[in-house]
Amino acid sequence: MEKTARFPHLRQDFAASLVVFLVALPLCVGVAVASGVPAELGLVTGIVGGIVTGLMRGSSLQVSGPAAGLTVLVFEAVQNFGLATLGVLVLGAGVLQLAMGLLKLGRWFRAISVSVVEGMLAGIGLVLIAGQLYAAAGLKAPAAGLDKITHLPGALAGALTSSTALVSLAVGAGTVAVMVGWNHLPRRFRAVPGALAAVLLATVASLVLSLPVATVEVRGLLDSIQPPGAGAFGQLASLSLLGTVLAFTLIASAESLFSAAAVDRMHDGPRTRYDQELVAQGAGNTVCGLLGALPMTAVIVRSSANVQAGARTKASRVMHGVWLLLFAALLPGALALIPLPALAGILVHAGWKLIPLRSFVPLWREHRGEAVILVVTALAIVTVNMFEGVLIGLALSVAKTAWTASHVKLEVIDKGAGPVQAHLSGNATFLRLPKILDSLESLPQDRPVELNLSGLHHLDHACRTALENWAERHSTSGTEPVRMTAVGEGDPPELRTGSSQD
């Protein structure tokens, strides 16, 4: 009775933790292999995400671990800087997240345009799918994202002439088919997560049929952990490395906090405290960096599985980390049986889910500018790189917001006799200045004009100066000077309400 009173939701949290563990296990391994690091490092990040981040405040039901959304960036970082430097990158990102959380900047991530985030995930998904199709065929993928896509048809055509590559592709395709079809099975079968079922079936098939497919290389948990050395910290003087740290920080933070907002919509429990969640993510990434492991984010797949399995408190995510630790300690050899094409199939499926196909058509119909930002961000990530692609998306978002905020309307009333009345309303900024001047300069030159500015919410310096210059040009001999009704009391005398130049 006492234990029940102290842990009233222990039964629900225990059951949910097993479900999340079964979902997380193949994803941790798959993300690590796709990132070009030992499979055990994916488990290390999952363990830290469960036990360290899971114990901290923030979002009570959100589950953290290695995420497909960072796979492309981590792979590029390992290729450019080496595995020994990965810990420094992740540690730097963790420290920055801690600082931002303590400075209460977490809530500001909610101000990032959803189109930029979705475009980022779509770009990652496209590069991830292309890269994992090579892995499914047992081929080495090109380094650049655009090369992965453009060289793919030739690579797959060549694979069709190799029996070994065909078998490998068949295992990967079968894995994807199982995951897609798993949700259509009766509910009693769906008690086992689709990703785990797909990996188990692929593993059994490869063993029973003695298929010639590559399997996961196992080093052992302790052998895979490589704390960063002094030499790796020396690379922090490199601008490219600092840029990668910043990219890790921004992308991991944005993905985690957007995931938190999505998880909050799934349950009626306590809401996410964004600054504290950012501190929790920073603490987890700091520990992962010290262990030389993968960076972590909150992962929507695991988090939604946690909520749907009936979790009530953060105990479920902590226990899922314990189960990952026990598996890594007691059954490390089981990883060596997993076919690499099966993990590639899981990540192809994960990459496909990163692309917001269902929401794109409504977005295009209702907010075409946001849809353009999404597409441009995704294409920039594919053709340039992750960090610069996100910066391009953010710049477009800011530019669109500025353009939208500078909406201005000019209404002209001409009764045929007397002064022409022109009313400006909205926000008059330099972005709309050409349109304003074109309309004003088309007014009759031989008629007096009354320009009413009282409907403006904002009038910047460029517009104010341009309007004064236009008024001087319009006021020719024989024509009454332009009469202006001002925006506010702080305007100069020539723009104040009711003043004129008689």
Can you offer a commentary on this structure?
With 502 residues, the protein is of the alpha/beta class. The chain folds into two domains: 2-400, no CATH class; 408-495, Transcription Regulator spoIIAA (2-Layer Sandwich). Helices cover 61% and strands 7% of the residues. It contains 22 helices and six strands. It has helices spanning 2-6, 10-34, 39-55, 71-81, 86-102, 114-136, 145-150, 152-159, 163-182, 194-208, 221-224, 230-234, 239-264, 274-290, 300-308, 315-330, 340-354, 357-366, 368-383, 386-405, 433-441, 461-474, and strands at 64-65, 297-298, 408-413, 420-428, 449-459, 483-485. Strand 4, helix 21 and strand 5 form a beta-alpha-beta unit. Mean pLDDT is 83; it is low at 489-502.
Tally the helices: what do you get?
22
How far is the N terminus from the C terminus? 92 Å
* Helix/strand/pairing category: alpha/beta
- CA-based gyration radius: 29 Å
The share of residues in helices is: 55-70%
* Tally of individual domains: 2
Mean pLDDT: 83
Q: Summarize the main sheet.
A: 4 strands, mixed
Overall form: elongated
